[in-house]
């Protein structure tokens, strides 16, 4: 077991900077998820920790030792790939024992360790099959088994569930969570799926364009996103953003209004919020609820999706802006019907206008 | 788009007709004609009508016999020795020519023999040249298939790297394939030429004159080796490209797994590369075997089967017989034997290298 510390880590391909100075602390036994849109550098960062990519600048420590120039096999890591990367010509047993075969382990040792990994992953019955006879979930289980057998100090997962169908993904997610608890190993997990990030992580690192946007516990990121990118990326459906004018500001509270938003006092703890002028108001779809009258927002229903347990309403506001409201009930809305939406001012977010917000 | 052309069966057949007719006329028909001719006494030009002769052509080529010659003995029963001390044997033709006691030896000639005690065992063949060409062809295949496949794999591994200018090397290794085999054979004839040929010059320069120049293609002990070496050189680039395609089909992630597990170069080859090349290997072995059995142009240009039949091979014999000696039926019979040989070896290779499910 070991902690992983990244200090000002950089990666460039020629003149193109992919990772632009990243500092991350991964505690011993922690489960840290790197999340971000594709191309944000999260997989590259993981591969740098693994030793599959060179580190252009900064230092990477695993277990208190700088490993920038240490071979992948000497870093005490194991990696699970999105494509499973199991050998098609080997049985499950041979695949799981691959590292032991390479290391020249005895037959007894292989038997024992493979049996243990198979027991942990409940795949004893699969050991003599070949990968061609396995489902996607079973293949990924084999890949995880191969990682377990290495007894690594750090497990690295590169989008391990992305090739699985939705139901299997949920199962495997739960299984990986359990595995972390039972092994107590440090795990670093890359995904573009914020639900995986929220459910698995003790700590989420949100990346964009090779920089850390915010790192923290899942609920911290959900409730106190530091910028619009994090606010928009964490949570589904995405947070609604509306242009507003700041009327006045009083410490950590600012009175805001716009043509479609009735004046109210919003929390204004983020840096860069002006005392007057333009700002961005963020409200999560789950915080919006329809009201009979006096709602802060009014408009007409564009489309309503009934999911049984929730209803997602797409509303066009009077000025043409669109917001999503996610109601925790099954309700019928007619397209074109006028609607008023209210929210708890304390759950609103205010962001400075001059920062990029695109989640994709 | 439902068009008349795509729906009408007749139009489709009409379109396929020219190609199909050409294939039928020049590939399928000759294939069956070879079988048919091999059972007759068909000649290229002959005033006599063609007759069905059954398997006589095959018997005339494949006939073999083993015969033990006993020494000439004097009155005491001791073997007679000649002036040089060698045991003297009766002449073989006493048995092979019109001897009613030995009908199985009739018209056969000595292929090879060995001493067994005082006796001499002789293997006789109805058609010694055919037998030699059969053995030479098999020898050629046995050497060329593994060596060419191995060398091509080595080259493919070398050029499957991300290095500056690697495409130049790929082009260079592939170049001999693009050049016509006849041209290559002519060039190598110069390289091998006795006296001032390139090979002799290079070897004597490299050994500071200690090397005695020799006639590579005119010597029974080196002629076949010389043909083999240039054949491997000429074909290796083609198979290199096939190996390369196989190599690039192996997922890079598998190599990353091997790297993380601390696998060395040899282990990576053994556990990742080679298993991933299994299907490519089957293809390459079968293709090389078929090409090697079809050896003709090199022999035709460089040696004409000589010296002393040391480079006689089956296809050259088939052509030589069919057109040189105007014996179409004999040539056809050789073609059929070659076909059966290649077919059975390919099937065998396929079975032996089949992937265990």
Which band does the percent of strand residues of chain B land in?
5-15%
- Total DSSP E strands of chain B: 3
The N- and C-terminal alpha carbons of chain B lie at a distance of: 42 Å
Estimate the helix proportion of chain A, in percent.
Answer: 10-25%
- Would you identify the CATH architecture of the largest domain in chain A? 3-Layer(aba) Sandwich
In terms of per-residue confidence, which ranges of chain A show pLDDT below 50 for 5 or more consecutive residues? none
CA distance, first residue to last residue of chain A: 35 Å
Q: How is the quaternary structure best described?
A: heterodimer
Query: Helical region count of chain A?
Result: 9
What is Rg of chain B? 27 Å
Largest sheet of chain A: 6 strands, mixed
Number of domains of chain B: 3
**Helix residue percentage of chain B:** 55-70%
Q: Please give the CATH class of the largest domain in chain B.
A: Mainly Alpha
SSE order and pairing:
The complex is a heterodimer of chains A (360) and B (357).
Chain A: E1 4-13, E2 16-26, E3 31-35, H1 42-50, E4 57-62, E5 65-66, E6 77-80, H2 92-96, H3 98-103, H4 107-120, H5 136-149, E7 154-158, H6 166-183, E8 186-191, H7 194-200, E9 203-208, E10 211-216, H8 218-223, H9 228-233, E11 240-250, E12 253-257, E13 264-267, E14 277-283, E15 289-291, E16 297-306, E17 311-317, E18 322-327, E19 338-342, E20 349-352
Parallel strand pairs in A: 3-8, 3-9, 6-7, 7-8
Antiparallel strand pairs in A: 1-2, 1-4, 4-5, 9-10, 11-12, 11-14, 12-13, 14-20, 15-19, 16-17, 16-19, 17-18
Helix pairs in contact in A: 4-5
Chain B: H1 4-7, H2 9-37, H3 56-62, E1 64-69, H4 93-96, E2 109-116, E3 119-125, H5 128-159, H6 166-178, H7 181-191, H8 198-206, H9 223-248, H10 252-260, H11 265-276, H12 278-293, H13 297-302, H14 314-324, H15 328-352
Antiparallel strand pairs in B: 1-3, 2-3
Helix pairs in contact in B: 2-15, 5-9, 5-12, 6-9, 9-12, 12-15, 14-15
């Amino acid at each position: 077991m070991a902690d992983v510390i990244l200090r000002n880590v950089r990666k460039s391909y020629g003149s193109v900077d992919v990772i632009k100075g990243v500092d991350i602390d991964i505690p011993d036994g922690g489960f840290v998820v790197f999340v971000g849109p594709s191309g944000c550098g999260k997989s590259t960062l993981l591969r740098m920790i693994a030793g599959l990519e060179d580190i252009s600048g900064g230092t990477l420590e695993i277990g208190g030792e700088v490993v920038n120039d240490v071979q992948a096999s000497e870093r005490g890591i194991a990696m699970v790939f999105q494509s499973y990367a199991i050998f098609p010509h080997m049985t499950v047993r041979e695949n799981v024992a691959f590292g032991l075969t390479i290391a020249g382990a005895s037959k007894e040792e292989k038997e024992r360790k493979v049996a243990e990994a198979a027991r942990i992953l409940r795949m004893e019955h699969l050991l003599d099959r070949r990968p061609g006879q396995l489902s996607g979930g079973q293949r990924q289980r084999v890949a995880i088994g191969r990682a377990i057998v290495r007894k690594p100090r750090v497990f690295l997962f590169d989008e391990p569930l992305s090739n699985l169908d939705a139901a299997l993904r949920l199962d495997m997610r739960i299984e990986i969570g359990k595995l972390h608890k039972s092994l107590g190993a440090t795990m670093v997990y890359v995904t573009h799926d914020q639900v995986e990030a929220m459910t698995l992580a003790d700590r989420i690192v949100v990346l964009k364009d090779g920089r850390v946007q915010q790192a923290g516990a899942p609920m911290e990121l959900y409730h106190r996103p530091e910028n619009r990118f994090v606010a928009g990326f964490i949570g589904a459906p995405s947070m609604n953003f509306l242009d507003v004018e700041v009327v006045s500001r009083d410490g950590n509270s600012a009175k805001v209004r716009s043509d479609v938003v009735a004046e109210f006092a919003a929390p204004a703890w983020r840096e860069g919020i002006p005392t007057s002028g333009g700002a961005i108001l963020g409200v999560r779809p789950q915080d919006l609820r329809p009201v009979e009258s006096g709602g802060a927002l009014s408009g007409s229903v564009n489309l309503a999706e009934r999911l049984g347990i929730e209803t997602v309403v797409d509303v066009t506001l009077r000025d043409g802006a669109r917001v999503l409201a996610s109601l925790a009930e099954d309700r019928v809305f007619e397209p074109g019907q006028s609607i008023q939406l209210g929210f708890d001012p304390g759950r609103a977010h205010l962001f400075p206008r001059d920062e990029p917000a695109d989640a994709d | 788009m439902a068009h008349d052309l795509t729906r009408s069966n007749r139009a489709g057949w009409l379109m396929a007709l020219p190609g199909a007719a050409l294939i039928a006329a020049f590939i399928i028909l000759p294939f069956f004609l070879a079988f048919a001719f091999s059972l007759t006494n068909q000649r290229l030009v002959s005033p006599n009508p063609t007759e069905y002769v059954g398997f006589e052509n095959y018997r005339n080529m494949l006939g073999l016999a083993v015969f033990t010659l006993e020494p000439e003995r004097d009155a005491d029963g001791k073997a007679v020795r000649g002036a040089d001390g060698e045991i003297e044997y009766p002449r073989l033709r006493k048995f092979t020519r019109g001897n009613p006691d030995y009908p199985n030896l009739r018209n056969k000639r000595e292929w090879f023999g060995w001493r067994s005690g005082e006796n001499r065992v002789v293997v006789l063949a109805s058609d010694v040249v055919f037998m030699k060409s059969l053995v030479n062809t098999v020898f050629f295949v046995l050497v060329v298939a593994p060596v060419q496949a191995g060398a091509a794999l080595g080259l493919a591994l070398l050029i499957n790297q991300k290095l500056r200018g690697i495409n130049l090397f790929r082009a260079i290794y592939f170049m001999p394939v693009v050049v016509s085999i006849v041209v290559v054979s002519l060039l190598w004839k110069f390289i091998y030429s006795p006296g001032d040929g390139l090979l002799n010059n290079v070897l004597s320069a490299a050994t500071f004159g200690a090397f005695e120049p020799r006639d590579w293609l005119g010597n029974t002990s080196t002629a076949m080796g010389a043909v083999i070496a240039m054949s491997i050189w000429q074909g290796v680039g083609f198979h290199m490209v096939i190996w390369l395609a196989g190599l690039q089909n192996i997922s890079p992630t598998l190599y990353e797994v091997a790297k993380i597990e601390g696998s060395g170069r040899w282990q990576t080859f053994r556990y990742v590369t080679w298993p991933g090349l299994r299907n490519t290997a089957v293809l390459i072995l079968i293709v090389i075997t078929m090409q090697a059995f079809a050896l003709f142009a090199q022999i035709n240009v460089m040696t004409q089967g000589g010296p002393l039949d040391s480079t006689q091979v089956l296809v050259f014999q088939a052509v030589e017989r069919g057109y040189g000696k105007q014996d179409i039926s004999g040539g056809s019979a050789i073609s059929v034997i070659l076909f059966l040989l290649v077919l059975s070896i390919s099937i065998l290779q396929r079975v032996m290298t089949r992937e265990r499910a």
